[in-house]
Write a structure and sequence with these properties.
Helix content is 59%, strand content 20%. It contains five helices and four strands, in the order αααββαββα. A four-stranded antiparallel beta sheet has the order 1-2-4-3. The longest helix is centred in the first third of the chain and has 59 residues. It is rod-shaped.
Length: 193
């Protein structure tokens, strides 16, 4: 049995429908291609803008690193010491303003022997930042001054009390200058623990 084929016959009887489908597909491909070309152009522009921003950020970073290196190399040790001293002095002034002198005087009054009187108090901050109080006291005897300084040390609020100077006055009393590191009540409590 042999197959009969007629090569003269047409595969589509309706050429217009086939052409319409092919044209529709071609238009669809052309539109999709156009959309892709527009998106590609937009993304390329955006990529260029981001690359320019990244390059600018890199330039700024290098400039800031150079400025930081110059600032670090320009720090003068003597100037830094001056600034540190000024900060310490400012902190001491602030500390002095927030500190209760009344509480200190009341506390000194309770520990002051009857034969001793305080003629002067000089506060200062030492190099370590400790609060040092200097006392000028008068008494009829050295023993009275020793009792007063012993009473101060026994409370735990003073550390390293030393008599710096001692002399006899024209009135026959003994005048002594002493100083020591004063611990505030919170510091004294911590030291006692």
């Amino acid at each position: 049995m042999s197959a009969r084929t007629n090569l003269a016959t047409r595969p589509f009887y309706n050429e217009r429908a086939a052409q319409a489908v092919i044209i529709a597909l071609a238009v669809l491909v052309a539109v999709a291609t156009g959309v892709n070309v527009v998106r590609l152009a937009a993304l390329t522009t955006r990529d260029s803008a981001l690359a320019a921003e990244a390059a600018d950020a890199e330039r700024r970073t290098r400039a800031l690193r150079q400025a930081t290196a110059q600032a670090r190399s320009g720090l003068d040790g003597a100037r830094l010491a001056q600034v540190t001293d000024a900060v310490r002095e400012a902190n001491a002034v602030i500390e002095g303003r927030t500190w209760s002198w009344t509480a200190l005087f009341n506390w000194l009054e309770t520990n002051l022997p009857a034969d001793v009187r305080i003629t002067g108090i000089t506060p200062r901050i030492d190099q370590k930042g400790a609060f040092v109080l200097g006392f000028t006291v008068e008494s009829e005897s050295v023993e009275g001054i020793d009792r007063f300084l012993g009473a101060l040390e026994s409370t735990g609020r003073f550390e390293g009390l030393l008599v710096r100077q001692e002399r006899e006055t024209d009135e026959g009393t003994i005048e002594a200058t002493a100083e020591g590191v004063y611990k505030r009540p919170a510091e004294a409590t911590e030291a006692a623990k």
